[in-house]
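User: Just a sanity check before I run the rest of the batch. Below are the C-alpha cells for the first item. I only need the designed sequence back.
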C-alpha cells in the first residue's frame, strides 16, 4: 500500500498531514502512526494530522502525537492544517474547522501568517509542582515555569529535557501527564519572551508548541506582558493576542505565526 502525505512545519513544530476526506486511514493503528512520525524509519514529525470532512465546518482536524496516540489540541498543528486546506483549495483566506477541543476560526494573511482562534482560558492556577509555577489549559494542559534572573541561569543553558521529564511525569499530573514550558523573563515585558517546551507524546523538547506559547503569554500577562505578546521559541517567533476578562480569565485568544509546506510525497506501508 502506498500512502500520499504532506509535511508541514510551524516554527519548527513539524507534522505529517494526510488528506483523509474519504476516511480510509485506520486511526486505531497507533503503531503505524508512530512509524510514520519516526525520524529514522518513517517520514519524521512531532505529530500526524488527518484532514477529514465534517458537516457544518470546512473540515475536521484529527490529531495524533508522535507516539501514535490521539492527543489534545495542537495550536501549531491547527495553523498548519489551515494552510494545507488552503493548498487543497478547500478554503480561501478564512477557515472554520472542528478540533478535539471544539470549533476554531482561522485566517491566512497575505504574507502567509496563519492566525488561529484558540479556546477561552481560565485564569492561571498555581501548580502543585513548584511554588511559583502555574498551570493553564489552552486546549492542552500546560505547566509554566518562569526562570527569573536570580535563579542564576539562562534558558539557553537550562536542562529542559531533564526538568521537563520530571514535571511531565510528576504524580500531581497523573494519569494523563502535562506539557511543560520554561520561560526566560525578559527585562522589558514588551520584548519577546523566550520559551522552550517539553511535550508529552513526543517525550522530548520540540522546537515550538502553539498551545504552550499561548499558555505562557496568558500567564505572562500577570507579570506585566500586554497583548499581543511575542514569544521566541527555538524554531521561530509566535504572537498571542487576547482579551483579559473581569474574572481573570481570557477570551478572544489568537495564536499567530508562519505555517509552511516543506514537501510532499508517497511512502510504502
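Assistant: Here's the designed sequence for the first item:
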Amino acid at each position: 500500500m502506498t500512502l500520499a502525505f504532506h509535511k508541514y512545519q510551524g516554527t519548527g513544530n513539524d507534522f505529517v498531514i494526510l488528506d483523509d476526506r474519504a476516511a480510509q486511514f485506520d486511526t486505531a493503528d497507533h503503531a503505524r502512526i508512530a512509524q510514520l512520525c519516526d525520524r529514522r524509519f518513517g517520514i519524521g514529525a512531532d505529530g500526524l494530522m488527518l484532514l477529514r470532512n465534517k458537516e457544518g465546518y470546512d473540515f475536521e482536524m484529527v490529531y495524533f502525537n508522535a507516539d501514535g496516540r490521539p492527543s489534545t489540541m495542537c495550536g501549531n498543528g491547527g495553523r498548519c492544517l489551515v494552510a494545507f486546506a488552503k493548498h487543497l483549495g478547500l478554503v480561501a483566506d478564512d477557515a472554520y474547522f472542528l478540533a478535539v477541543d471544539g470549533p476554531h476560526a482561522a485566517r491566512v494573511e497575505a504574507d502567509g501568517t496563519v492566525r488561529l482562534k484558540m479556546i477561552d482560558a481560565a485564569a492561571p492556577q498555581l501548580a502543585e509542582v513548584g511554588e511559583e509555577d502555574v498551570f493553564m489549559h489552552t486546549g492542552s494542559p500546560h505547566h509554566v515555569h518562569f526562570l527569573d534572573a536570580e535563579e542564576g541561569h539562562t534558558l539557553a543553558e537550562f536542562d529542559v529535557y531533564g526538568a521537563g521529564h520530571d514535571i511531565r511525569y510528576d504524580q500531581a499530573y497523573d494519569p494523563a501527564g502535562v506539557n511543560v514550558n520554561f520561560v526566560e523573563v525578559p527585562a522589558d515585558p514588551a520584548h519577546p519572551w523566550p520559551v522552550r517546551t517539553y511535550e508529552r507524546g513526543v517525550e522530548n523538547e520540540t522546537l515550538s508548541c502553539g498551545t504552550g506559547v499561548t499558555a505562557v503569554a496568558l500567564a505572562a500577562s500577570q507579570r506585566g506582558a500586554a497583548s499581543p505578546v511575542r514569544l521566541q521559541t527555538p524554531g521561530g517567533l509566535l504572537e498571542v493576542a487576547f482579551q483579559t476578562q473581569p474574572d481573570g480569565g481570557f477570551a478572544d485568544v489568537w495564536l499567530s505565526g508562519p505555517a509552511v509546506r516543506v514537501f510532499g510525497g508517497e511512502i510504502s506501508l
